[in-house]
Design brief:
Blueprint: H1 2-36, H2 39-70, H3 79-100, H4 102-108, H5 114-131, H6 135-143, H7 147-170, H8 175-200, H9 207-241, H10 244-253, H11 258-278, H12 284-316, H13 322-332, H14 335-338, H15 342-349, H16 353-377, H17 379-405, H18 415-434
Helix pairs in contact: 1-7, 1-11, 2-3, 2-5, 2-9, 2-11, 3-5, 5-8, 6-7, 7-8, 9-16, 9-17, 10-13, 11-12, 11-15, 12-13, 12-18, 13-17, 15-17, 16-17
Amino acid sequence: MKSTEFAVSLISPWQIFQIIRFSSVIGTNILFTKGLLETSAIGIYESILLIAAISSSFWVSGIMQGLLSTFPKNEKSPALFNSFILLSIFGMFVALVLYSMQEHFITWFNISNATLFDKLFIWYLLFTTFNNPTYVNEYFWMMTNRNKPLLLYGSFVYFLQFAVLTLPLATGFTLLQSFQFLAILALCKWTISWIIIYRHSQVIIDPNFIHILISKSIPLATATLISGYAQYIDAWIVKNHFDEATFAAFMYGAREFPLSLIMANALSETLANRIRISGIQENLSFIGMETKKLGRIIFPLTCLLIIVMPVLFPLIYNEDFALSASIFNIYLLLIIPRLLFPQSILLGTGNNRIILWSAIIELGINVISSLLLLNLMGIEGIAWGTIIAYLADKIFLWFYVCKKFQLPAKSVTHLKLWITGSLSVIGFYIVYHQVLSTFL
């Protein structure tokens, strides 16, 4: 009974933490569009965020998931300190590279106000330099089941991030002051990292651990980078076959439902952490229990969204974005492979390299199927190519895990709920698009 209670308490806070992070970002974006910023300034802000995401998100994700695979059961080890140092070195190197390319970004992103971009970009580089290493804070609390400090930290930090970006603008200051406060916030988080490291890690350089961490992180970082490129390739295909209005409509719809993505990713990392600590066999029932709990929420919600999103999209935007709803409804079907978790078993056991090979296969399938289906189905075929590729990736890893570890098929999900939930989502999609859409 105690182990079950421990399991439930372990997973929920990490998912809540990710929702808090996402809510801060969405809240900021909403207030920006409600009059705090002019559209041109929002464009510069989003361009800076995009540059930072393209240049940093894949290797930060790779290192943190690599740490998830290698973090020792003995907490008082050099792992945390060495991960922090590695993130810091990469962060400073990337910041220097981005700084040297600053003038090129103005041209590439067609920035209209180069002076404002230059001022903001310097402060955002300071923010990312200090902020990237602080991911060790939340991952440490998650990996060691310190749920209370995890949620307190998340609530406090992301409320402050929301506040420092919006309150200065609401009180007469400029976006430059918001970015300066943001850099100060990152410095405070960086200080917290040192406190955690001092208390819970050996402050020594361990070349052996760094070598292991890098070897585990490279396949994961590369796989994340390849998956990101798949989205850019889809965008390129649309850009080269359709006009600007169609391209805009596709890009607005070509995204997953954020809550499903956040909840599934958080569960995946938590499962990997538990497998790292106590092994696969000890967690098979837990995997089934937690995927069942998540599926009972996400599958019905997805069915509802399939019905309401075609009505909401034209209301939220305008009638020109009706196509976006059609694309978004196809992307909602990504919940089917999302509720399979073979990657958690691979991460938890340190078998990361196969994830990279699977990502390469996924990219190839995505390109080929998107181009083939484009000719058969039009622009929706590109979205279906993404569904096919992602499902193929998960099924490949599913078979690999079952064969390598001699596991039953139900080891990566609650199989009965996954089958019934998947069929329900597909059924709702078919019924809506073949029957109900003609009457609405």
